[in-house]
Amino acid sequence: MSIRKILIANRGEIALRIIRTCKEMGIKTVTILPKKGEESNFIETSLADEFYYLEREGPQGYLDIKRILEIAKKARVDAIHPGYGFLAENWLFAKLCEKRGIKFIGPHFKILKKLEDKIEAKKIAKKVGIPILPMSDGSINSLRDLRKWILAIRPPFVLKSRKGGGGIGIRTINGEISFGEVFTIALGIRRQMSMAFSDSEFFLEKYLPEAKHIEFQIISDGKNFLHLGERECSIQRRFQKLLEESPSMFLPDEKREEMAKLAIELLKELRYQGVGTVEFLVDKDKNFYFLEVNPRIQVEHPITEARTGIDLVEQQIRISQGEKIKFSQDDVNFQGFAIEARILAEDPQKNFRPSPGKITKYIPPGGQGIFLHTFLHEGQEIEPYFDSLLAKLISLGKDREEAISKLKRALEEFQIEGVSTTIPFFKVLLENKDFLAGNFTTDFIEKSKILERVSPQVFIEKPLEKEINEEEIAKIVYQIYKLLKEKKEIEPQEVSNWQMAERLKMLE
Amino acid sequence: MKIKIGEKIYDIEIFEEEEEGKIKIRVNKKEFIFGEEKEKEISIPRVSLPKRNFSKKEILAPIDGIISEIFVQESNFVKKNQKVLTLSSMKMENELISEFEGKIKEILVKKGQKIKKDEVLIRLI
To answer: Which of A119, A172, A301, A407 is the most exposed place for a label (fewest CB within 10 A)?
Structure first.
């Protein structure tokens, strides 16, 4: 049965991304927003054919299964696209959709349920022959468990939430530490996790230092399994991806083939249908280890689309309506080199502190080889409720060098005011010798001390009503001068009552 | 250097004066001098006033966010650097610590409440 109308259970750039493909396919779209009067902050409402209001504030509204299913029924949609985050990996939601005869665009709920359990996922990976890092074979429930596994695994290790998003509760424990300290940290994490999830189980896994994060995009109709190449996402902060590139310049061809083959084996074992990503950590000797499967469209999917010309959202929809993939592995033609920079409402100079606010100026970049996925416009309110992603800036060049120079040029053009963004960080990153040489791992930001070189972002906060005089301008210039001058002294730690505690949920 | 404010363009020149910390900024040919010097001139010798903090002991929100947890109650005593609440902003959980020592007079926010930057969250005495 072909899909004629889709409810997009998401917001922001990914909602726009899905609407665009739907329009090209002649599919009607329905979007949602928190409440009446906020339409201008949710521009997906102006692009979709219909929109409905949620009943709860902020992310709670987008997680409100009952209300979303109610809207789906009222709008008579055939399918729901969950995007990423929110309900994208919620097997209960997928099951309820199925029960009501609505297609959930994503893998079957039974697969989501299996993959939700990170320990189970690792066991399946091991079964098909993918190496995994040493880990506790179950949840840690007592001090005794903890001691047992600490002795078995030895530091450094990572405490991970068994069922939460990839980033929650991740702590690296390096070097010598007493059992008491480990336990205190463990309890702290347990408390943090129970705030976000009802289930606060966690497990222990060996930490792989100096690792690269490399993932493979797989697409399957249940019978044919193809890989669309890899993405390297090693530029991260606090286990959050900031910049992704494809291909990874670190992987030799045989290694790439080997990993892609195993990633396909894993999804075959799961009888996976749809698009999915298999994530790996790779050490400096090119030993790789399974990390997790992301059973959804990912934030960084556009770099794969740029290189292959394949619309992944279109493929998701086609697979959901029972179509077979119309091309073979040999038809997949990889071209050039693509990079994505995540433009976030965060201040890199203050260790990526969130920066909500109102967009007072917005001038997007463009031109050859540049793709921009965003929902921004002047006057847009950036709410503290949602994640900080403002835009994804993607460049495609014939090789890495060209992709970097295009991205650099586009970052120069890109003007966003009213909130701090990661643009100044990328400008510094793209000049960094180690980055240019491909010499970086997931701890690059801390190790390279690159944040010390990021320029401060200064805006005139209120719109100017009258013309300002020379003295006022001189004062502003002096403030900027002082900031620049003191920059090195402000770093490393700004004095404040602010402490970054925990990432609530990984965006991707 | 030129800067554009609104539709108007201004010529800016910056000179680091020989005297330490002094900066001359020229805007459209008009000169302005900045630096620590002025403050030194007006600073009065320190007299031994009783050391009391007359400023308000208030814990303010460093950024916009949503209160996700409150660890203290009214009439509790808190120490300096004690964790008082967590503020969630853009899916990041952030612990706020008290800059003061004292007794909590008033907690002005509730769990789940959306708050603005610089809003008073807790008053101490």
So the answer is: A172
For A276-329, the pLDDT digits (tens) are 999 999 999 999 999 999 999 999 999 999 999 999 999 999 999 999 999 999
Beta strands in A56-105 (DSSP E): 79-81, 103-104
Q: Could you give the CA distance from residue A407 to residue A411 in angstroms, rounded to a whole number?
A: 6
* Interchain contact, B23 vs A478, CB within 8 Å: yes
The range of the structural domain enclosing residue A165 comes to 134-206
The answer, yes or no, to whether residue A490 has pLDDT greater than 60, is: no
- The owner of tokens 């209120």 is A462
Q: Helix, strand, coil % (nearest 5) of chain B?
A: 5, 50, 45
Cβ proximity of A245 and A337 under 8 Å: yes
Top residue of A195, A470, A471, A496 to mutate, by most chain B CBs within 10 Å, is A470
A233 min Cα distance to partner chain B (Å): 20
Does residue A215 sit in the same domain as residue A202? no
Give the nearest partner residue to B63 out of A356, A477, A502, using CB atoms.
A356
Q: Is A270 helix (H, G, I), strand (E, B) or coil?
A: coil
Return the DSSP state at A348.
G
Residue with tokens 């690296």: A172
Count the domains in chain A.
3
For the beta carbon of residue A194, count every other beta carbon within 10 angstroms: 11
Q: Do B97 and A346 touch (CB under 8 A)?
A: no
Task: Give me the CATH number covering residue A52.
Answer: 3.40.50.20
Would you call B90 an interface residue with chain A, using a CB distance cutoff of 8 Å? yes
Residue A473 pLDDT grade (very low, low, confident, very high; cuts 50, 70, 90): confident
pTM, two decimals, is 0.83
For residue B81, the chain A residue with the least C-alpha distance is A497
- Angle at Cα A489 formed by Cα A487 and Cα A494, nearest 5°? 85
Determine which helix (DSSP H) or strand (DSSP E) holds A245, and give its type and residue range: strand A240-246
Q: Which of A206, A228, A258 corresponds to the end of one domain? A: A206
In the β-sheet with A202-206, what is the strand arrangement from edge to edge? Answer: A171-173, A157-161, A202-206
CB A388, CB A299: distance < 8 Å: no
Residue A385 zone, left/alpha/beta (φ > 0; ψ -120 to 50; rest): alpha
Q: What is the dihedral of CA A488, A490, A493, A499, to 10 degrees?
A: -140
Beta bridge partners of A391: A343, A374
- State the Cα–Cα distance between residues B53 and A234, nearest whole angstrom: 48
Looking at residue A135, what DSSP letter applies? Answer: B
A219, A318: one domain = yes
**Residue A286: strand, helix, or coil:** coil
